């Protein structure tokens, strides 16, 4: 009996050992293979296999994306319909190259040269609609209405393309079967696409990962929102929000599902997206960055968003302020929130009445008396001084206050406003008192830009 029990126990142990070995073998690391088990058409497989070899960086980005995990392939975004304006003719040649994987005519599909918000709207209709009415999507129109550099032809077409239009967007066009190099490459937020849609989702969700995590980080916004005229990223980094972000960002859960990114759970202090776009409390997520704004601080004279002439917002500033207060209320008490807005409103009032209004009145008087010439902008010193008063120091003062960055509210803001204002008024009064015309720069460099407003935008209106 004893020997029989011993044998049974030994046999059991042997079975357990063999089972453990088998389980261990199953857990050995394997070479990762991308498998598309859903109904991927042969043409979609051809795209994947070709780009896997020819552009491995693009393939790797896509393979790590949520799109790939959901079975969304190149065709879902890039396939064009016959007759569309932006079909890449040059791409068709790849289907007759035998040295490429699956480079055969049987796999041919028309491919769009640029993926647009209209393409993205097939799966993200709400986001595309919200984006289409935002300041982001319409920023190319805004700068043509506001910016004397463009309207005065005071910079070159290439300076505009590599500078202004890199963020604001170009008017895309085709040339010889490919995107016109005069308008491409460009992923500007206000780009006008050939299908009529505005903007590029890849401004924030860069291709081909299209990451929600990336778009939530302030560094993404800082690609465009920086510098002397709109230093939001510098302002954010100086603020208490930015300080907490830098100290604790390694603990933030940036990969939380869309619409579920929660303060106090996924992040300790907000980023740009947390305040201006992400859902929080009773406020829903939005891709319209014009929402939640109660002052238009980029304008020469600070106005409510609905009164901003280049793009009047279809919003009620009181409703939008309450939304932002709700966002603030996830971390702050009511007295803190209310007193902050008192500070902001006071700064706006002082900028408008003490700095901008008297300078604007003096500027108008100079033009009326013919002491300044309107033929070109920036070819007279006072035009530059007035422009930078509102476009540089004035914006920094208002934005620094709005995002609680004291150095930008004061030293880079109102402190500089005072000196700019004094210099402007001193020269202006001298011209008026002596009835002297301002000196004009005869050789303003590279003032060669086309002053014709894009017909594709303004011709419709």
UniProtKB/TrEMBL annotation:
Keywords: Signal. One of its GO terms (molecular function) is oxidoreductase activity. Residues 1-22 form the signal peptide. InterPro entries: Cyt_c-552/4 (IPR023155), Multihaem_cyt_sf (IPR036280), Multiheme_Cytochr_ET (IPR051829). SUPFAM superfamilies: Multiheme cytochromes. Residues 120-179 form the Cytochrome c-552/4 domain. This is Cytochrome c-552/4 domain-containing protein. It comes from Pseudodesulfovibrio mercurii.
């Amino acid at each position: 009996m004893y020997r029989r029990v011993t044998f049974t126990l030994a046999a059991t142990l042997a079975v357990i050992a063999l089972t453990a070995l088998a389980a261990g073998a199953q857990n050995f690391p394997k070479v990762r293979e991308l498998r598309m088990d859903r109904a991927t058409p042969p043409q979609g497989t051809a795209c994947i296999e070709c780009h896997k070899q020819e552009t491995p960086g693009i393939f790797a980005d896509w393979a790590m994306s949520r799109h790939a995990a959901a079975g969304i392939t190149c065709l879902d975004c890039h396939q064009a319909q016959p007759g569309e304006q932006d079909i890449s003719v040059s791409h068709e040649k790849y289907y007759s190259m035998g040295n490429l994987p699956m480079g055969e005519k049987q796999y041919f599909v028309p491919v769009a040269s640029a993926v647009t918000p209209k393409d993205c709207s097939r799966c993200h209709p709400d986001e595309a609609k919200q984006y289409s009415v935002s300041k982001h999507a319409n920023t190319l129109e805004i700068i043509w209405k506001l910016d004397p550099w463009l309207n005065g032809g005071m910079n070159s077409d290439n300076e505009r393309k590599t500078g202004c239009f890199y963020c604001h967007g170009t008017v895309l066009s085709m040339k010889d079967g490919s995107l016109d190099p005069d308008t491409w490459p460009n992923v500007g937020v206000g780009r006008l696409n050939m299908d009529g849609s505005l903007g590029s989702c890849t401004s924030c969700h860069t291709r081909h990962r299209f990451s929600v995590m990336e778009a939530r980080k302030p560094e993404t916004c800082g690609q465009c929102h920086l510098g002397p005229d709109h230093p939001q990223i510098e302002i954010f980094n100086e603020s208490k929000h930015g300080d907490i972000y830098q100290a604790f960002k390694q603990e933030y859960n940036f990969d939380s599902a869309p619409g579920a990114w929660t303060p106090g759970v996924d992040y300790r202090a907000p980023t740009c997206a947390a305040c201006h776009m992400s859902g929080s409390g009773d406020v829903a997520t939005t891709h319209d960055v014009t929402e939640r704004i109660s002052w238009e601080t980029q304008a020469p004279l600070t106005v409510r968003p609905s009164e901003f002439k280049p793009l009047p917002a279809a919003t009620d500033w009181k409703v939008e302020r309450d939304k932002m207060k709700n966002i603030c209320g996830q971390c702050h008490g009511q007295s803190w929130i209310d007193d902050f807005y008192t500070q902001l409103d006071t700064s706006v009032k002082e900028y408008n009445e003490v700095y901008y209004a008297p300078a604007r009145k003096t500027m108008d008087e100079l033009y009326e008396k013919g002491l300044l010439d309107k033929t070109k902008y920036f070819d007279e010193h006072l035009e530059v001084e007035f422009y930078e008063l509102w476009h540089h120091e004035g914006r920094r003062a208002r934005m620094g206050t709005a995002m609680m960055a004291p150095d930008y509210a004061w030293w880079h803001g109102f402190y500089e406003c005072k000196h700019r204002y004094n210099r402007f008024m001193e020269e202006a009064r001298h011209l008026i008192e002596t009835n002297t015309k301002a000196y004009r720069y005869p050789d303003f460099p590279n003032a060669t830009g086309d002053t014709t407003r894009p017909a594709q935008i303004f011709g419709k209106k």
